[in-house]
Amino acid sequence: MPTPAVHIGPGNDPLLTEAVERGGGEVVALADAEALVVVGGHGDLPELHDGIRWVQLPSAGIESWVEAGVLDAGRTWTSATGAYSSSVAEGAVALLLAGVRGIGRAARATSWDNEALDGVQSTLRGSTIAIVGAGGIGRAMVPAFLGLGARVLAVTRRGLPVEGAYETWAADRVGEVFAEADHVVLAAPATSETKALVGAAELAALGPRGWLVNIARGSLVDTGALVEALRDGTIAGAALDVTDPEPLPDGHPLWSAPNAIVTPHSTNPSTLRVPLLAERVTENVRRFAAGEELLGLVDLSRGY
Ligand SMILES: NC(=O)c1ccc[n+]([C@@H]2O[C@H](COP(=O)([O-])OP(=O)(O)OC[C@H]3O[C@@H](n4cnc5c(N)ncnc54)[C@H](O)[C@@H]3O)[C@@H](O)[C@H]2O)c1
Ligand SMILES: O=C(O)[C@H](O)COP(=O)(O)O
């Protein structure tokens, strides 16, 4: 089997060097490389010579790379889609539970008041949770929700069955899930199709007992409509790891809404992310050497 010549950069982490070597590759200078593992954002992408046949991006969500127009058609691009499932799914489950069980509110309290959460808490048991974008991350949430006694309605681009979901709907029915589900978790990529997927009408359909969780991208939600829905009690609450704008500025109404929980794009911290990326790099270097299909292939026509 050939030994793939892989450059890592512009930053590096010893775990990624080990990952390339474990996959059967050799870490080389950019000029000698046939593959590149990017460490950094799209602005850090070095000039790519024609010998680079494959580029591994570090993020699952690659809309900023797509929008910057740096993904050319002359080589293979892979994202980290699916690589961070365990980490981000756990964060999403934690966010929904923190909302439904009143933990967000309790964490803000500065004195003991055991009546403050009266009427605020509910349970996931017996509820219907819609996962909009049931890919790597979304699917990893399903066993946790089933274990808590909920049922799962999945939405994917094509609507092919998702294991554990009682039904899977295709993206063209996504507007219907807000009336069907008790709670909605967003885990779909940021594309032109998902932009402002959640607006005033969807929030009204979700209703006053429903929680919205977003671990995908802020662009999936109309922030103005969400702020109004939280203020008016149109929905029970929102738990957001991602926001529009991001970073969410100091003083933004989402910071002070008692029924909002905001984490700063932190469900995938580097302590968890880098080892997971390293696993993906090992597997893709092995596949590259073997001439097998790579994981996380970017489809430029789909935008992710
Ligand atoms: N908060 C974070 O730190 C964090 C970390 C990783 C990923 N993300 C975000 O989560 C997204 C999902 O990551 P993943 O690894 O699960 O990706 P994935 O590609 O495995 O899953 C995406 C899913 O979305 C579905 N989908 C595509 N278009 C859709 C549409 N229009 N409507 C409904 N569903 C649609 C796909 O069919 C697929 O099931 C990423 O695109 C990224 O933006 C966030
Ligand atoms: O999509 C991801 O992998 C994470 O959300 C991190 O994305 P970022 O690298 O664009 O911040």
From TrEMBL:
Enzyme class at the top of the EC tree: oxidoreductase
Domain D-isomer specific 2-hydroxyacid dehydrogenase NAD-binding intervals: 94-266
Residues spanning the signal sequence: none
EC number: 1.1.1.95
Name of the protein described by the UniProt record: D-3-phosphoglycerate dehydrogenase
Keyword Oxidoreductase: yes
Keywords linked to the UniProt accession: NAD, Oxidoreductase
Keyword Oxidoreductase: yes
Superkingdom field: Bacteria
PANTHER family on file: 2-HACID_DH_C DOMAIN-CONTAINING PROTEIN, D-ISOMER SPECIFIC 2-HYDROXYACID DEHYDROGENASE NAD-BINDING DOMAIN-CONTAINING PROTEIN
GO MF entries: NAD binding; phosphoglycerate dehydrogenase activity
